[in-house]
Amino acid sequence: MMETATSQKDFRRLEMIYKTLFTFCALCCFVAILPLPLLYYTFLRIIVFISAGVVVYHFGRQKELLWVIVFGIILILFNPIVPFHLYFKSIWIPIDIVTAILFLLLVIIRLKKKELPQEIIPEKPPQLKTFSRDRIIKTSSKNNINNE
Fold first, then answer.
1. 20 and 32 in contact (C-beta within 8 Å)?
2. What per-residue confidence (pLDDT) applies to 89?
3. What is the dihedral of CA 122, 20, 54, 118, to 10 degrees?
4. Number of alpha carbons in the 13 Å side-chain half-sphere of residue 68
5. Of 72, 76, 64, nearest in space to 111 by CA
6. Could you give the CA distance from residue 54 to residue 15 in angstroms, rounded to a whole number?
7. DSSP for 16-73?
8. What is the pTM of this model?
9. Distance CA 145, CA 108 (A)
10. ∠12-46-53 over CA atoms, to 5°?
11. CA gap 114, 118 in Å, rounded
12. Is residue 37 classed exposed, middle or buried when 0-12, 13-18 and 19+ CB atoms within 10 A define those classes?
């Protein structure tokens, strides 16, 4: 998603969408500490699963293994398709808090950078490699006269 941005304006718009999504996920995880109906926790699983998938995809493309592993674990824990049941709310409360803090860290630390992604930064054109057979060797005029 972020790699398809073709201009600085598009990049900033996507960055703002990501920040909003991840902040919303963090807020939802903090709210999940309260006793709420099952429907809310299903919604939480879906939104955190999608957001963690975006993080894994984005940082996987950037080859940042630590973020991929951390949010890959979150992706597995909050999977709504094949739910990971821990059955006790006392186990889920620290997981929700840590997940919320990780999403906030992602917003504050990682996405705070205002630089453009690698695809947008203009690159210098590669220089053509020359080989010795392609070079013209200049010889002195004395050598040319002696050879004739």
1. no
2. 84
3. 10
4. 9
5. 64
6. 12
7. HHHHHHHHHHHHHHHHTTS---HHHHHHHHHHHHHHHHHHHHHHHHTT-HHHHHHHHH
8. 0.66
9. 75
10. 50
11. 12
12. exposed
Tokens of 52: 């963690």
Tell me the residue length of the chain.
Answer: 148
Angstrom distance (rounded) from CA 118 to CA 135: 35
Instruction: Kindly state the greatest CA–CA separation across the chain.
Output: 101
Each residue's pLDDT, cut to its tens digit, for the chain (148 residues) gives 444 446 777 777 888 888 888 999 999 999 999 998 989 999 999 999 999 999 899 888 888 889 899 999 999 999 989 887 878 888 889 999 999 999 999 888 865 554 445 555 455 666 666 666 666 666 766 555 555 5
Q: What is the dihedral of CA 68, 71, 73, 78, to 10 degrees?
A: -150
> Which tokens go with 125?
């054109």
Which residue is associated with the tokens 């201009």? Answer: 7
CB 106 within 8 A of CB 55: yes
Residue type, 46: I
Tokens of residue 34, six digits = 């309260």
